[in-house]
Amino acid sequence: MSVEAYNRDLAYIHNVGFGSFAKRSAPGLLGILRRNGICSGLVVDLGCGGGLWARQLADAGYGVLGIDVSPHMIALARQRVPAGTFRTGSFLDSNLPPCAAITSLGECLNYLFDRRNGRSSLRRLFRQAHQALRSGGLLIFDVAEPGRARGSHRRFWEGGDWACLVEFEHDPRRNRLTRQITTFRKVGPHYRRAEETHVQQLYEGSQLAEDLREIGFRVRTVRGYGDFRFPKGQVGLIARKPS
Predict the structure, then answer these.
(1) Across residues 182-189, what is the average pLDDT?
(2) Which of 134, 172, 177, 196 has most Cβ atoms within 10 angstroms of its Cβ?
């Protein structure tokens, strides 16, 4: 049911060139956990990527379970956080253990790497999260909304040994954003080219908040984590399981 996500080169490029979201989010997220009385315990990170947020959690004294669909990302996370536990798989099949908090950063819940993903699948995930969280526990995540992109455009990034070209295509009828990604990574004297297609289902944050409240969470939406502000068209949700 899943498609390839973050092959070896894209995982490497994301790890070295696109870690700012996790790094800039971390102080605000740690503050949210502590203000809600969560100063220890297990945090499950869905779509953990290369473990940048997991590293911050481990350094702050939390236990970490990271889950990601990309085995290449999981390999990076295990190197970065040897004390953490990491699993390769879809967040829809995560079998969440009892925990203090669950996080999912960088619009991970929007991605259609698992073709079963959709609003109904997210509702099931939210119910599992509610069952897994201890009283007072938090589910924190951010999603891309329909205003995240308009029309078609291209962007280009490069680093010392890599380059990345992304073509964006917005489908307003289906509320989907497609990224056609072409990467170039230097291997010896040459560059190796690879391609991937990433599709996101865009969600209204207010609708997901409604789903969470029906399950029993107390929910608020945010436009950033602490001092870090999201770009336009991205919203965060902080869902608390009542004590």
Answers:
(1) 97
(2) 177
